[in-house]
């Protein structure tokens, strides 16, 4: 491969270079950071996340925001050592980041990162994922990975082919799937009051609406487009108006202490926060092969970032909600679409079904009845790789910015 077209003295003059591989999952980017991020302090993954937030947030900004990223950028930092890798419960850890902070869970990035963890060349990435030791399931031509995400351990299955050099390679033609942490509805048909200062034009004269809340590694409010006042359902031409409406709804929810109960984490207080609003259109969507039905949704998360993908953690949250609200049988497989996958005739939708209840004794939340483990599947593709650096005299780009 050609050497970088920039003199070494420029490359090495500023902060240490950061190496990434970029992928997309149904259009949603994942910038996978595999080298050069500052060493994180702490023995648990959540302590490392807190250290990244407190002491290295400018590096997140540098990689997510302009001029190296954009306002809808998303990233994943590979963390070799966590409390659960040390305990033998996980193979490797990951921290998920977006333009405004860190995520507790991310399905689209899990799908992308897992392919990369199977594929990377150890010679080009010294020190990365030392516990890598994939076993091939020859019958299904898949390999398994236990990924320690901030919300817990996610069991990933990556389809593989036998690559050259005697190594397994991920198979881009088949979907990656993951069994999420326990997912469960936290509020069904909740009447949400919308005080005057939080109303948006499409709500008309209404002062409240009905929505559900569910957890899929992150806490979501799930609301039909019609409930928000979008009578024709979800349309991409309404994106700006949908963003305004969901921002107001989020603010109305977060401002009212009576709704806090819907986004309280049973064991980790720092994961108990409101993450996003998913607007649903349950009348549209092409089911993927083998699925029983489909719907379209649009996820606004963080500081109103728009998920281009169908949202993996949100798909688990929605499938768990259908289990609790409508009593869907576990094997009922549903395809969750975003605008892109719906526009592409169904290409790239995420399909989800329930694979079981949590094992007895693992229930820390006291909600065993409705808690389920959801398997979500989707596809991610490589789009490039990069070496990012900051010149010593560059006073503008070190922390990134939003124009
Ligand atoms: O797929 C997911 O779960 C995510 N995508 C961006 C927002 C969520 O974290």
From TrEMBL:
Enzyme Commission number: 4.2.1.77
Catalytic activity field: trans-3-hydroxy-L-proline = 1-pyrroline-2-carboxylate + H2O
Pfam families the UniProt entry points to: Pro_racemase (PF05544)
Top-level taxon of origin: Eukaryota
SUPFAM superfamilies, A to Z: Diaminopimelate epimerase-like
InterPro entries registered for this protein in UniProt: Pro_racemase_fam
EC supergroup of this enzyme: lyase
GO molecular function: trans-L-3-hydroxyproline dehydratase activity
Similarity remark: Belongs to the proline racemase family.
Protein name (Swiss-Prot/TrEMBL): trans-L-3-hydroxyproline dehydratase
Native species: Corynascus novoguineensis
């Amino acid at each position: 491969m050609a050497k970088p077209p920039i003199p070494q003295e420029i490359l090495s003059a500023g902060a240490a270079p950061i190496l990434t591989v970029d992928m997309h999952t149904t259009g949603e980017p994942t910038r996978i950071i595999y080298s050069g991020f500052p060493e994180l302090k702490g023995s648990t993954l959540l302590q490392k996340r807190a250290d990244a937030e407190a002491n290295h947030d400018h590096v997140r900004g540098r990689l997510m925001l302009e001029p190296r990223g954009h306002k809808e950028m998303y990233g994943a930092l590979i963390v070799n050592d966590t409390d659960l890798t040390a305990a033998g419960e996980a193979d490797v850890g990951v921290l998920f980041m977006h333009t405004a902070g860190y995520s507790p869970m991310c399905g689209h990035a899990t799908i992308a990162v897992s392919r990369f963890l199977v594929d990377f060349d150890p010679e080009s990435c010294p020190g990365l994922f030392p516990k890598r030791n994939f076993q091939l399931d020859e019958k299904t031509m898949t390999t398994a990975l236990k990924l320690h995400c901030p919300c817990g351990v996610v069991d990933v299955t990556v389809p593989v082919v036998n690559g050259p050099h005697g190594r397994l390679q991920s198979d881009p033609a088949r979907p990656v799937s993951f069994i999420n942490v326990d997912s469960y509805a936290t509020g069904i048909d909740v009447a949400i009051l919308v005080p005057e200062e939080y109303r948006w034009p499409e709500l008309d004269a209404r002062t409240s609406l009905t929505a559900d809340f569910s957890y899929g590694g992150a806490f979501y409010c799930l609301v039909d487009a019609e409930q928000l006042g979008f009578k024709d359902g979800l349309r991409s031409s309404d994106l700006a108006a949908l963003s305004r409406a969901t921002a107001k709804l989020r603010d109305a929810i977060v401002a009212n202490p009576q709704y806090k109960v819907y986004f309280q984490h049973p064991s980790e207080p720092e994961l108990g926060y409101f993450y996003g609003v998913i607007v649903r259109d349950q009348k549209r969507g092409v089911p993927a092969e083998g699925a029983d039905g489909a719907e379209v949704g649009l996820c606004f998360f963080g500081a109103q970032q728009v998920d281009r993908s169908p949202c993996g953690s949100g798909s688990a949250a929605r499938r768990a909600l259908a289990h609790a609200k409508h009593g869907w049988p576990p094997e009922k497989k549903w395809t969750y679409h975003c605008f892109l996958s719906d526009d592409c005739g169904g290409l790239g939708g995420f399909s989800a079904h329930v694979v079981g209840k949590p094992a007895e004794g693992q229930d820390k939340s006291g909600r065993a009845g409705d808690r389920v483990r959801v398997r979500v599947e989707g596809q991610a593709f490589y789009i490039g790789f990069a070496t990012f650096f900051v010149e010593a005299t560059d006073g503008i780009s070190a922390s990134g910015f939003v124009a």
